[in-house]
Amino acid sequence: KHPNYPPCIRGWIPWFGAAFQFGKAPLDFLAQARAKYGPVFTIAAAGKRLTFVNLHEDFNTFFMSKDVDFQQAVQDPVQRTASISKESFFKNHPACHALIKGRLTRSNLHEVSSDLCAEFNEHLELLTDEGAGDLSDLVRHVMYPAVMSNLLGKCNSPASKAAVQEFTEQFQTYDEGFEYGSQLPELFLRKWAKAKQWLLSLMKSMVLKAKRNTSPDTNSKTLLQHFLTILTDSFSPNYALLMMWASLANAIPITFWTLGFIISQPSVYRTVMEEIASSFGEKDKTKSVLSESELQQLPYIQWCVLEAIRLRSPGTITRKVVRPIKIQNYIIPPGDMLMLSPFWAHRDPRYFPEPEKFMPERWKKANLEKNVFLEGFVAFGGGRYQCPGRWYALMEIQMFIGLILYKYELTLLDSLPKPSSRHLVGTQQPDGPCRVQYNHR
Ligand code: HEM
Asked: pTM value?
């Protein structure tokens, strides 16, 4: 009730606050709150104050101010979702971030891209020549093992169909419950807690294998092996779990959406196929290898990936206020969680005209060669702790889309689902199944 604080939505149950209404469909709740309370408002929910900043003018403060902190915002969720102690997290986090950022920087991607391409080829060729199935399942069954092999090592990728299936089930349970698991005691989330334990023991064995197979040559080490050179406490499997989750949880739904948007719009599909034909029309469809430079010849596919990311961005990203901070005419008190929604920011027509439309051409204006996205695009966060996997993500999705469409003709059997409004963490999941027919070309 402080006169300088932003308007606060409390609900009618003390302590619990607006948690119930907010939790049901948080993305819709945010849009309604914005319309009613303006560009800055606080939601009091389950003993926490979540203060949302919605104006582009305030994003720089969100990302750059010394009065807000990334590590303090994520430490408790990290402890709950990966059982990493507070001491270990504050000690190791800056080095872990710097390591991933350094290994996956754009200029280093050539070290991993040809192996990744070989993995995608191998797993795509395991599909039958023709068939039908859920598009999300198809993407997962190829991408999980390929990306895990690429980042964690071939010996750490699920090898058989049954192993991929088991991993997929456990990972999906963990991923779907991640948001609740980051807030609630495990006691309320039995199935999720079991999946987390299953993944943690898998990570323990992966760490042992990675240590056993490590090579003295820096360039042939996997990302996991690099990680193990800086982590000296007993939590290395726990960090490996988080790194694996971060590398799969956002990129895989975006791959689904990119494919869905392309094949549901005939003119986009045609342009993509023309680009593919002119770039590698004569190659062997079973063995195609894409290099970094060949990927640069598929700019339209890259625009499609970025446009899918824009439309299906993470619901929120967060910082903790550590000293009072002024935003608009309000003072935000220390202890508040400061929240920014990339999903809603990308629907601001001042930056993205006709924001709900999938328009890959809008990315023509971005200076991607200089690593600059479009103004107003915040899907990867910003500031010191911006997503360190962003260049890898763009490369892997573009490569996967280029390869699958080169090899297979895809036809949608259902209409493209809407994004689910149930989650705030991470990129948006489809609200229902979406079947496709595929035929090897
Ligand atoms: C389209 C795909 C992706 C999106 C939209 C995305 C988005 C994000 C966002 C918004 C953050 C938080 C940044 C902030 O608060 O400022 C983040 C963090 C992170 N991302 Fe990504 N990400 C993607 C793919 C990836 C991939 C493929 C990897 C790894 C290979 C990765 C690794 C990470 C890690 C490790 C963090 C935590 C950084 C830290 O704790 O310092 N991400 N990502």
From this structure: 0.95
